[in-house]
């Protein structure tokens, strides 16, 4: 048996480091050593002497190193419908945009995925997630287009293969031509999992089963979707308790609130995470804590659609896993996750807990380790620890926007969006000097504009 090749090492020194480990270990000036795609060592002061096969050394003076950001909820395709229905609540916004979304095709989805991924990756996201649930007939291979865009960008990725089978004729919101059949949705989801899901420790692509929401999905699709996910050994994702209108819908149609309805369909558990969860009472939070059901908190989108303020401090106190999400860029036009660190902290302080709601380190944990928990990958990513995958970010904090803030974590959470000097995924650099290394940003900007204009023309003539 041939000996394995000696690992190639990258050594980073002289940086402030926030590990976001269980003890919230931090170093005012420390080192990080990467061996191939794993973190080999991390600690105070310079790196150990005598390291072999060092292919690169980085002097990270003036920087903070954190785990890469983990996005737990998004809709990439919405990148090409930004800036529309800007004064609507969720239900009216959906009614306004579904007819346009129902006319997307593979070329549009690929361009939109590239735009969404690029905006996140250049802002420190190393693990992205997309909940794609619109599959118009004849639109092409949409899941493959999305996964291909993430692969080309070099980010770690979870595709939540969504579905809808409750259209307007069944009391739902989507147009009749925008939904799949029950059997078609289940078959398409199973095929996507079998073709693309990687269960390995260092997987770059994973797939979750993700019927869209209670008001666009039949009870049978929820039940059979949960059974399918557990048979295939993958996670489950959906929208839950986003608005008061959704709660009213569930009571009128099912005779119970969203959380009780989800529990009745098999949709609470440690393999489940839900987006938003804004309107949760004490018993709802207790049920999520008891079952370890995760939450993707999307503060900017919730504000944009006037959905309300999620009870994140109460969820965290109860033991609910909580991560951060961008949500679709038709309801969060910036499309960035690093700004959600600040927005999560500020918006939650408008709630009942006021200034005690969240602090800077809790906000950073939501965007890193919390996200890893929600995606079921806390053993591999989300904190900087020896043996974990080398997904991390170097934030420049010695510039005009941050240099007068003494505490580095406070600087990147409370301060302006910090420049990303370097971002690494699986030990490979994908960002340098706030620019993507793996794709052409200008070409993406041109392509997304062209596809947005094409979609607008098609929708206008329909």
Automatic annotation (TrEMBL):
Q: By its UniProt entry, which CDD domains does this protein fall under?
A: ATZ_TRZ_like (cd01298)
Supply the EC number(s). Answer: 3.5.4.32
Which Pfam families would you find in this protein's record? Amidohydro_1
Under InterPro entries, the record lists: Amidohydro-rel, Metal-dep_hydrolase_composite, Metal_Hydrolase, MTA/SAH_deaminase
Q: Which UniProt keywords apply?
A: Hydrolase, Metal-binding, Zinc
The keyword Transmembrane helix belongs to this UniProt entry's keyword annotation: no
Q: Which stretches make up the Amidohydrolase-related domain?
A: 65-429
The record's GO molecular-function terms, alphabetically, read: 8-oxoguanine deaminase activity; deaminase activity; metal ion binding
Name of the protein in question? 8-oxoguanine deaminase
Traced from the root, the source organism's taxonomic lineage reads: Bacteria, Bacillati, Actinomycetota, Actinomycetes, Kitasatosporales
